[in-house]
Amino acid sequence: MLRVDLHTHILPPAWPDFAARSGYGGWVRLEHHAPCRARMLIDGTLFREIEDTCWSPARRLEDCDRDGVAVQVLSTVPVMFSYWARPEHALDLARFLNDHLAGVVAAHPRRFIGLGTVPLQAPDLAVAELARCVGDLGLAGIQIGTHVGERNLDHPDLFPVLAAAERLGAAVFVHPWDMLAPERMRKYWLPWLVGMPAEAALAICAVIFGGVLERLPRLRIGFAHGGGAFPAIAGRIARGFAVRPDLVAVDNPHPPERYFRRFYVDALTHDAETLRALLRLHGAERVALGSDYPFPLGEERPGALIAALPELDPAARARLLGGTALEFLAVPAKRFG
Questions:
Q1: DSSP 3-state assignment of 144?
Q2: Which of 105, 155, 107, 112 lies closest to 126, judged by CA?
């Protein structure tokens, strides 16, 4: 069965000094400090240490071949979104990242698919860059964050970007970033363990209750990390709509269950029962293999959890391992045959 990993991250091996280029700080800088290792620094403070699997196509292809992954879907590391920056500088970075990513895909078209990034804080620039990603660079869509400052994905300012994605037939993959309540999550890696699942669930609720999916019925939108906390609170969300429509149904009169099989999620749950809950909630037609490669909180062997579910029939297993991802991306399987 064709194995397509929807959720992987890549960086260029180097990039310009955007602090010098823009005249202010906050940008990520890459410092190669040892063989096959580098530090991601923000204003001199360590954000993350990474290995060459993050920037070397050859190294990641070695891992793909080892793990039986035929195709990786490449997207940037979410800290690079830079939605806090001035629009023209965020666009400058996005174009650099997208050009690099498109070059990697072009060099290995049977192994990689690309999702670009856009300066979401400036919707007009984001729409233009989205069109360039799809039209000029041949990418399948974009990866975006769960919010832009205080604006969730149902904010009217962001609607033109999602509408453009629907019009262009571009996939939109939503990844948690800039997690809420950082002042309460300074220890125990809680932004990644608790903040990310909360961010994903909040983003899903925004597009459901905000009527985004109702207004854009052909939008292909997916959420990382199995939708985060959403599977665990889906029943509570439905109950809240039923008992307090005066508070919940203020922007969309339709019950949330109407949309549970309208959006996609990856299968990155780390737990068989949670994956089963995803399948009950969304169906195999909306769940796709995603590993978060090459980061340690991802699935070490992409697809191992899917392979471990004995009750899956061959058709469902094929959907989970590859078919759903290719449908979400609108990429034909014959490209990899």
A1: strand
A2: 155
Q: Counting Cβ atoms within 10 Å, is residue 212 exposed (0-12), middle (13-18) or buried (19+)?
A: buried
| pLDDT above 90 (res 203) | yes
Taking each helix axis from N to C end, the angle separating 230-243 and 196-209, rounded to the nearest 10 degrees, works out to: 40
State the DSSP string of 103-120: HHHHHSTTTEEEEE---T
Amino acid at 165: A
Cβ-proximal residues to 142 (8 Å cutoff; 6+ apart), any chain:
115, 116, 117, 118, 130, 133, 165, 170, 171, 172, 173
The CATH number given to 4-10+61-336 is 3.20.20.140
One-letter amino acid at 258 equals: R
CA end-to-end distance (rounded Å), the chain: 11
| Phi, psi at 4, each rounded to 5° | -120, 120
pLDDT at 169: 98
Q: In what order do the strands lie in the sheet with 221-223?
A: 4-9, 71-75, 112-116, 141-145, 171-175, 221-223, 264-266, 287-288
Per-residue pLDDT, 164: 98
What pLDDT score does 326 carry? 98
How far does Cα 34 stand from its chain's mean position? Answer: 29
Q: Which residue has the tokens 């195999």?
A: 284
